[in-house]
Amino acid sequence: MACIKTLLCVGACMTAWSMTTGDTSVPKAQNVHWTSLDFQTILKWTVEESEHTYTVMYSEKNHDNWMDVDHCSRTSETECDLTRELEASDKNYEADIRADSEHLLDEFGSDYDFPHTYAPMFNPYKESNISALEFSLTDVDEGTVILNITHPLTSISEGGKQQTIKDILKNDLKYKISYYKSGSTGKKKKIVDSSSAEVSGLDAGQSYCFMVAAFIPSRPKATQQGAWSTLQCRQGDTHFTQGAYTCRHKTEAQKR
Fold it and tell me: What is the 8-class DSSP label of residue 76?
């Protein structure tokens, strides 16, 4: 009987404690990953449906100096734009997402061990994806064209000027050109240093199609190449950007 009374007492005490403190579980951030395009870098995560908020901090790797992100403090969003904080630095960064709870903070104070989720290490300069370039074609003669390449703008400004990917990557930025003659199954590729690139040795009177992409050989292989541009074609002195199928279709129609 004494044992039963003890168990009942323990059960009652636990129930009372539970009613007082409520549910102390705080869902931590999950599926944490980086997305970065043209050096606009965003940290994203998913959470179970809840009323909790999340605070993001970041630090350069191996530096015990975690810094808050003002616009991502106790946020109910599931992403945080860190472009301004990381810029396009050739440094390795870590990020920490802390799950917050006003209820637990009021009850236990700032010493409460809220759950943390750490993001994978990220280097903006080496890992940010590069979007498609734009270019125009200029004829030199029947066998030679020049591709005039323009650079995407980034979300980074310096001295009041919005930076392009060329401003940031400087001499690390090269250009990969892919081109082929209509009716041919083989593609030719060349890598050039200049944004004004000459392609020669073309057969006079033949239709050719071209694409370009940013290429950064100093990067890890997975992020060396940017997205391919829109296909542009040349038939004699006529240029059009309607894609490879149209380019081939026009050539075949002319043959008939």
Answer: S
* CATH architecture classification, 134-255: Sandwich (2.60)
Closest CA to 202 of 147, 250, 135, 145: 145
Per-residue pLDDT tens digits for 76-129: 999 999 999 999 999 999 999 999 877 766 666 566 778 899 999 999 999 999
From CA 95, how far away is CA 58, in angstroms rounded? Answer: 4
In CATH, the number for domain 26-127 is 2.60.40.10
In angstroms, what is the C-alpha Rg of the chain?
29
Segment (H or E) for 155 = strand 153-158
Residue type, 38: D
- Running DSSP on this structure, what letter comes out for residue 129? B
Strand-pair partners of 240: 233
Percent helix, strand, coil in the chain (nearest 5)?
25, 40, 35
Residue type, 97: I
Domain ranges for the chain: 26-127, 134-255
- As given in the structure block, the two tokens for residue 232 are 């542009």
Q: Could you give the count of Cα atoms lying within 13 Å of 43 in the half-sphere of its Cβ?
A: 30
